[in-house]
């Protein structure tokens, strides 16, 4: 159950940043890690963008914070 939850969250993250939507989750994870190692600014920007999106959703009361 926990694995499915995390896979769903990671898939949502990759979809949000538009990262290889036609690939499997394991391949997407490996390629993200590879690209992130070579371009740390890109990876950081991707992570910050979804965090900002989530923060705005909480502020708009579209979702709740845990």
Structural class: mainly alpha
Strand content: under 5%
Largest sheet: none
* pLDDT averaged over residues: 93
The multimeric state of the shown protein is single chain
- Count of DSSP strands: 0
Helix tally? 3
Could you give the order of the helices and strands?
Answer: HHH
Tell me the distance between the termini: 19 Å
Radius of gyration based on Cα positions:
13 Å
Which term fits the overall shape? globular
Low-pLDDT runs = none
Bin the helical content. over 70%
Compute the number of structural domains.
1
Show the helix and strand layout.
Layout (H helix, E strand, L loop, with lengths): L1 H16 L7 H14 L1 H20 L7
Helix pairs in contact: 2-3
Plain-language structure description:
This protein has 66 residues and is mainly alpha-helical. It has one domain (2-59). The chain has three helices and no strands. The chain has helices at 2-17, 25-38, 40-59. Helix 2 (25-38) packs across helix 3. The chain is globular. The chain starts with a helix and ends in a 7-residue tail after the last helix. The mean pLDDT is 93.
Labels describing this entry:
66 residues; mainly alpha; 3 helices
């Amino acid at each position: 159950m926990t694995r499915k939850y995390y896979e769903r969250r990671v898939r949502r993250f990759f979809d949000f940043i538009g990262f290889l939507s036609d690939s499997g989750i394991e391949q997407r994870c490996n390629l993200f890690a590879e690209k992130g190692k070579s371009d740390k600014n890109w990876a950081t920007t991707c992570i910050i963008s979804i965090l900002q999106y989530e923060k705005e959703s909480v502020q708009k009361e579209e979702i709740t914070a845990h």
